[in-house]
Amino acid sequence: MHIERKAGGMVEDVVRELGHLSLGTRLKRIGETLQAQTQAVLAAHGFEQPAAYFPLLAALDRLGALSVGELSQAVGVSQPVVTRSLRGLEEDGLVASESSAQDRRVRRVALSGQGRGLVQHARQEAWPAIEAAVAQACAGLSGDLLAQLGALEDALAEAPLKQRVKA
User: Fold this and answer.
1) In the predicted model, what is the mean pLDDT of the chain?
2) Which CATH class is domain 7-137?
3) Model-level pTM?
4) Which of 51, 99, 104, 161 gets the most CB atoms within 10 Å of its CB?
């Protein structure tokens, strides 16, 4: 097996070199990097919870009590992922859930008092630091990255890759 090496003995970054062909892999890699680095910032600010919990906490803080399905839509991840995260949040005492009065099959989730305190602390301490660090990392990019990603999400929702391949 032959491994292509660049000057200095570095292995070629194949995902980067493949361009649009591996865009999904590259975005996932960037997301995983941001998630891991966000976790490090949270830990430095004294937060022990996984970084993946914070979008759920922020959604519940912003929108109030939600069903699992609504929370899944609010943060854009699958219901099984939300359900697993909610178990951890409940174990940590950050959320509470109860059956809906209108439909006992629907579970409504809300921040507990402890969860509201954690979100308030995160909003004051860690979130501004993370926001500024990510903005700084993106500052040297040409074009508006967030708008580009939004346009990509919209385009993929309008015409998924499978549909584009067939066309």
Assistant:
1) 87
2) mainly alpha
3) 0.79
4) 51
